[in-house]
């Protein structure tokens, strides 16, 4: 250990309370940043995951233009061919077919305009959480025809329960009038109000018959093995579906294209988070600045003596920087360790939030959130603290250059 | 409701402009309103019975339907699809501002909810509102003659129709062209920013139901080429005596052939 480091170390313990308080401030800031960032990343993953699982899937194959226009005639006419492509892809966990039609749905009392969705009951259960969301009645089983699943809010609006009849009136793929009577089989609640209010699900085969689809569907919904495989699946599937003949070219859209609102909400949350972090770091920076300035004022005489016996200002500056670096590093290490422990505890147990905000609920964020500790979330905050404290400590350390030995010894 | 608010403002503004123009404008306004009234009477008669072929045209697709319809004054109308066979018997009843639709396959009547009134009727470029609120033009708008043209040697009045304050309408403005013999030549629908949304034109004037009448009505969306709906009259009779029970829900279920 060089003499400088030894001196810095001893200097720190000349006023242990101040040093420890400074270290604690840095540690606390680091802890908070580790936890908050892990929390944010964790909630985004939960948010994306639950939105994806409720409805859109990670990816969808559609006819070009369908996403914007939702026109009945923009179909995937050979869904099985798309299925073959997906079967060959090892990163695809499951996929299902869906067809949608805007229709009037009428109970005895009321009529609403909703999206009627044709679903393949077995495949759907592997891709979306719909089956688990059933609160009353039961899920659709294979070979069923005129049965429907209805969202809880829509059921309330229509004033219907399980076993009641609904009249469905819409337009088929060929423009002809599509009409049928279905019996409510089950009522589901996803927590996403928009979804629970605006759609009913009927078996796909029956849908294709009623709406004269001639075997076509509107969406092939794909679930990847995990979120991180999505870009890769998108790339390979995009190349593979080029060979499938369809009237309009087939496109595959990932969840960001399917739910542009979700990525916007995440960005907004991230930005407001950053503002908070910047304020936090500035507060820490000021407390460190304060400590270091105090040190210099207190030790002016000491520095004067040191300079008088031949210590260069550069060496004094170095000494002060070593002192601040020791404190910062001690604080950051403590912060990372404590922050990781706290985060890890909640990562295992989850955090219960009773009043999830409206914005979050739109995307089906559950009431229990699990922070996600990662190398990134554990290091990015403390790294910012390190840089800021280093820069802050520079200012008082450089002040030493302006000292004149005689004046300093006189305490001026 | 934002839309109402905006239209209201526009309406108030146009009202003020009308006012400041003074007596001459007032007379014009009355003239215009009387002209629209007279034209409506001429085009609809006391009652009418008609058979119309409706063609919905899209760039890659076309659909043809035959519709038989009865109207009484401006309040009541009822129509059924008679062709193609797959859709035969589907009917729509309109009384005042309310509409019902009937489907024979499920044998049910559905009342069209207010939220659906601006949706397309049977997938065409006509909305439910265009059918159910036909009289809205007379009740909810103030009319001003803004110019004249000639058509087949006859004078045509160009009329600007602005919604009255508080009127429950979706359009920011309508522009009409009415010939001096009361034939309706054009109706343009504009949004709150006064941009055209769709335009209906009438073509092929000929003798129908004992009067000169446009044989073809075309509704064209303003922003897309090649997307329109055409109504072509096959048969038309005016002022026949219609049974009272025709415009009821029970008659909607049992089409008159």
Count of DSSP-assigned helices of chain B: 5
The appropriate CATH architecture of chain B is: Clam
Largest sheet of chain A: 6 strands, mixed, barrel
How far is the first residue's CA from the last residue's CA of chain B?
Answer: 43 Å
What is the helix/strand order of chain B? Answer: HHEEEEEEHHEEEEEEEH
Low-pLDDT ranges of chain A: none
**Cα separation of the termini of chain A:** 33 Å
Low-pLDDT stretches of chain B are 15-27
- Counted up, domains of chain B total 1
Could you describe the 3D structure shown?
The complex is a heterodimer of chains A (412) and B (257). Chain A is of the alpha+beta class. Chain A has two domains: 3-52 and 262-409, no CATH class; 65-248, no CATH class. Chain A is built from 16 helices and twelve strands. In chain A, a hairpin with a 5-residue loop joins strand 6 and strand 7. Chain B is an alpha+beta fold and 257 residues long. Chain B has a single domain (2-253), classed as outer membrane lipoprotein receptor (LolB), chain A (Clam), CATH 2.50.20.10. Helices cover 22% and strands 46% of the residues of chain B. Chain B is built from five helices and 13 strands. Chain B has helices spanning 2-21, 23-44, 128-132, 136-139, 249-253; strands at 47-58, 61-72, 76-83, 91-95, 98-103, 108-111, 141-151, 154-163, 173-179, 184-190, 196-208, 211-221, 228-238. A 13-stranded antiparallel β-sheet of chain B has the order 6-5-4-3-2-1-13-12-11-10-9-8-7. The termini of chain B are far apart. The relative contact order of chain B is 0.18. The model of chain B is unreliable at 15-27 (pLDDT under 50). Chain A binds chain B through residues 73, 104, 106, 110-113, 167, 169, 171, 174-177, 179-181, and chain B through 56, 60-61, 63, 81, 84, 86-87, 90, 101, 103, 105-106, 108, 110-113, 115-116, 119, 122-123.
Please sum up the structure shown.
The complex is a heterodimer of chains A (412) and B (257). With 412 residues, chain A is α+β, with helices and mostly antiparallel strands.
